[in-house]
């Protein structure tokens, strides 16, 4: 991908926004049947990028994990406060308020708590100086384990995504610009690979049915990787062929943690129980994502330190 480094980073933010589109669409109960697999690909993409952008030094990992844990705490308190205002008669549960062990008041909190644990494990492996070698063994082993285990949706920590996180870390040896250039040059082949990955779980299910095997749908199918790959390719295509649209998508992508953690609050009053089924309510994510991105931008201008905490970053500019 030709252009400056900012252009190359643009395609990553575009892919984040495309992934978030699927998540908001599903959480609004407005998506067509089968989109759940695309949402799985969105979660895969977020864990993959989290692993890729994880620092390679123990101290920096711990600092980033501390910021993320603080953001998790703040979002938990905000969820609890809004729940107390909206439903003052609800039964309090600290587990539900922070998303630990059961359905959270704010569903996306499970991602934050899981990522905190993943980063702590990565920090320990880095301290032991085994992470680079460990990744080469752990990624294929844990990937195969995902086909035999199906953790509960609201388990305390879902380790079925850990191999994706480690895979992202393993890709750190490749510069982001190089990945973007290579993906752009090989886009047709990668698109075909994504389609093959999407069909893989369905083909395995058919084989298991034909062979009368006790097949359990894996909790993290390779099909999710296919969706994640297609979202990355979509980000590259937008950055290359639709620069104005890519700029808007990238702007939303810069506020992704804020959008991810806050969209549930906006969906309840905006969507409610109304379900007109117009284009599967595609207007819901089209409205929610830019609205929250604009809110994040405005809040950052007025309360930069607070937004930095909510986004688990240093003070933003």
Structure explained in plain terms:
This protein is mainly alpha-helical and 317 residues long. The protein has one domain (5-310). The chain contains 14 helices and no strands. The protein has helices at residues 5-27, 35-52, 58-86, 94-98, 109-127, 131-145, 162-170, 176-185, 187-211, 222-241, 243-253, 256-271, 283-302, 304-310. Mean pLDDT is 79; it is low at 1-8 and 149-154.
What's the quick description here?
With 317 residues, the protein is mostly helical. It has helices at 5-27, 35-52, 58-86, 94-98, 109-127, 131-145, 162-170, 176-185, 187-211, 222-241, 243-253, 256-271, 283-302, 304-310.
SSE class: mainly alpha
Kindly report the average pLDDT value. 79
How are helices and strands ordered from N to C?
A: HHHHHHHHHHHHHH
| Overall shape | globular
Helix residue percentage = over 70%
Low-pLDDT windows of residues: 1-8, 149-154
Number of E-state strands: 0
Largest sheet: none
Q: Count every helix, treating DSSP H or I runs of 4 or more residues as helices.
A: 14
Strand content: under 5%
